[in-house]
Amino acid sequence: MHYCRRGCVTFRVMHRCKQRISSNACLCIHCNQVIPSNEESLIKHCESCSLMARPNPFRHKFVCFGCDHYSYSKTTMRNHFRQHTGEKPFKCSLCGQFFTSSAALSMHTKRTHRTVVSQVKRFV
Q: What's the angle, vertex CA 52, arms to CA 47 and CA 58, rounded to 5?
């Protein structure tokens, strides 16, 4: 049985629980291996871990280290990792808030800074 810093009993139940065991390492729920938290190491592990269930090898090319999410796309999997690592690399240039994806930043800009964006478009 696994426990995280928040006291969740298992990572499989708490999908959004962070699997970080330190600032530079994550724990695979499938094989209990500690993985460096850089994207390339996580991607490589999620593609090659033999204990991850892959019912369809084509659709399950990448299986997440922290839950049962799967994807054929490396980019989709990288974006999904951010739910577990807490990384928010996209910054709003208007208010400084950070987001996990460019789509979330775009939606924030349209909803929150609607008047500022429309004023900028008039001057361009």
A: 55
Residues written for the chain: 124
Q: pTM of the predicted model, to two decimals? A: 0.65
Contact between 90 and 98 under an 8 Å Cβ cutoff? The reply is: yes
| pLDDT tens series, the chain, 124 aa | 344 444 333 333 333 444 555 567 888 999 999 988 888 999 999 999 999 988 888 888 999 998 889 999 999 998 888 888 788 899 999 999 999 889 999 999 999 988 765 665 555 5
Both structure tokens of 118: 């429309």
| CA atoms of 16 and 61, how far apart (whole Å) | 22
* Dist. CA 51–CA 76, nearest whole Å: 21
Find how far residue 78's CA is from the centre of its chain.
6
Residue 105's CB: how many other CB atoms inside 10 A?
A: 19
